[in-house]
Write the structure tokens for this entry.
Amino acid sequence: MNAKPIGVFDSGIGGLTVVRALSARLPNENIVYFGDTARVPYGPKSPTVVREYALEDVDFLVSKEVKMVVIACNTVSAVALDVVQKRARVPVVAVILPGAREAVLATRKKRVGVIGRSPRSTAAPIPTRSPDRRRVRVFAQACPLFVPLAEEGGSTTG
């Protein structure tokens, strides 16, 4: 067993849900979490800036001698997974594709909604065919104020 920790990062604190899931499934693992709350959210930023931030985030985790990196940020998963995988000297996985697969499996009307940048970037990892081979339509809507609201425990119900 490798005693080094697993590194997880997100643009804020939302990735703590990933940490919770990992801890439940891997109770004997140590986890190092980095939430970039100084620059949250990443979603409205340009792909160039997202890649720059993602590389800084992974460099930090690698400096903590992690054995692998989990990208808990959907924006980084969609825009910068390739550069993070090239930079890190450890295996890197992202959460967006498993979530996208589950969305495609769950939809009854073959429509998936994405809260994110644009259909070309954030929605790109979503498979366009369901297991029964029917085409799935992906709708994306940028919601730049949603992340800060959610991470601060805000409510729109007053």
